Every structure is written in structure tokens, then in C-alpha cells.
Amino acid sequence: MTRAILVLRAISGVLFLTQLTLGILFWTGRTLSLIPLHMLLGSLFVLSLLTLAVLSARAGAPRGPVVALGFLAVVILAVGFAQTRLVAGPNHWMIRVVHLGLAAVAMPLAGRLPTMLPSAPRRFRGDSGPSGPRQGAGSAPERV
Fold first, then answer.
1. What is d(CA 23, CA 18) in angstroms, rounded to the nearest whole number?
2. 54-58, 64-68, 72-76, 93-97 — which is least confidently predicted?
3. Please, what sign has the CA dihedral across residues 127, 131, 137, 143?
4. What confidence score (pLDDT) does residue 132 get?
5. How many whole angstroms separate alpha carbon 24 and alpha carbon 51?
6. Is the full-model pTM beyond 0.85?
7. How far is residue 88's CA from residue 40's CA, in Å, rounded to a whole number?
8. What is the pLDDT of residues 54-66, one digit of tens each?
9. Cα–Cα distances in angstroms (integers) from residue 97 to residues 20, 39, 74, 112, in the given order
10. CA distances from 140 to 99, 128, 129, 131, 143 (A)
């Protein structure tokens, strides 16, 4: 299951970067004909985040980050589909920033979730193990 979680994390990252690129092009007024593609890829992005959250929960990830990622994914989708009807006019940029901000918060969480698994390799958790020579049983660690 850890392999599937890592693959989903990578897929989410690629989809995020693709969405970000398309979004920047839209903000500059270019390639507006690709909005349907952006919506399709956005739906796949949300699906990958939700699947990542479910698999991580089944693998023993902490409940808080799992629920937060699932919630963010649903809100990203809702704001994305509703954004043309929200805050029309010259202030529409605010909705675009919110939509981008939600995804920008979700991605680091999706990236960290696999490191929170009990079965995550030490290198993923940032736990490099003891540094320096091994200490004997019963000896106190050196203080600096």
C-alpha cells in the first residue's frame, strides 16, 4: 500500500504543476480554450488527493491530516466549479487566489502524509537514526 501512496503523491504533484501552469496562462488571458482541460485535470487532482487520504488513513496515518486533506480536496473542487459565479467583476481575482491558495495548502499536506505512516521508511520520516558512533547499553548520551 505504501507504494500506491507514493505513486499517488507523485501523480498529485504532477497534476498540481500542470494545473498551476494552466492557471497562470488563464490569468494572463491566454489559452482560455483549455479551461475544460483544466477542469478535467482538476477533478483528477481532487480524486488523487481523496484517494491518497483514504489509503493513508487505511495505512495508519494520523486522522487530523487525513481529514484536512480530504476537506481541502472537496473545497478545492467546489470553489473551482463555482468560481465563475463567485465575486464577478473586477474583484474576481480574489476567488482565483483563494482557489490557488487552497491547492497550495493541500499539496504540502499531500506530500507529508506518506511520511506520517507508521510503515514509512526512516528516510521518509526525516529520522536518519543515530549519528556518530553507537553508544553502549546504559551509557548516557553526550551533552554539548
1. 9
2. 93-97
3. negative
4. 45
5. 26
6. no
7. 23
8. 999 999 999 999 9
9. 12, 16, 17, 23
10. 51, 20, 17, 15, 9
Range 115-131 average pLDDT: 63
Give the whole-angstrom CA distance, residue 105 versus residue 127: 24
Cell numbers linked to 135:
553508544
Q: What is the DSSP string of 15-54?
A: HHHHHHHHHHHHHTT--GGGHHHHHHHHHHHHHHHHHHHH
What pLDDT is attached to residue 53? Answer: 95
Q: What residues does each domain of the chain span?
A: 2-117
37 residue type, one letter: L
Answer for the pair 107, 16: CB distance below 8 angstroms, yes or no. Answer: yes
The span from the first CA to the last CA of the chain, in angstroms, equals: 41
| Beta-carbon contacts of residue 5 (< 8 Å; ≥ 6 apart) | 52, 55, 56, 59, 113, 114, 117
Q: What is the pLDDT of residues 40-52, one digit of tens each?
A: 999 999 999 999 9
Cell of 102: 487552497
pLDDT at residue 138 tops 60 = no
